[in-house]
Amino acid sequence: MARIIGGLSLIVVGFLLIRHYNSHSMAVLMATVLSVFAAAGIWNNTLLGLGVPFAPWLGYPVQVLGWLLWCTVIVIYTFPDGRFTPRWTLWLAILLVPLAFIMAFDLDIFLNPGDWPGPLYLLPNILFIGGGLGSVIYRYRHTVGFEQKNAIRWYVW
What we know:
This protein is mainly alpha-helical. Helices cover about 65% and strands about 5% of the residues. The protein has 2 domains: about 55 residues; about 90 residues, no CATH class. A hairpin with a 2-residue loop joins β1 and β2. The two termini are about 25 Å apart.
């Protein structure tokens, strides 16, 4: 029940973002990300995943939502102005899309971190999410504009 209430609150925030800031592309993108989080839930434990034992066909939407959930990290790389700053985050985004697809659909190939031994399977989490946090810190320290710093503060909050 708490997950459903949390999901509904994310949808409401996304709706309010689009209603008030529909001319700003980053606000619309953030509202889309919030909607994906509302529909998917959390990594590796999506809301629709609870229904897979009862309706096996739900497995495919769960996998697609899992992939979209991982791809939302790209928004962190481009926040608040839509550019990849620092430039190495572009390479993280390019690497993220196929690797997230492999992880979400659990493809049985050597690139699937789920098949890696020991703590190595955590490497994508550290690399992609840590890279996103590093890019936010970099932007905050090297941004001179008050508006962008204020946007980053609100985003982190």
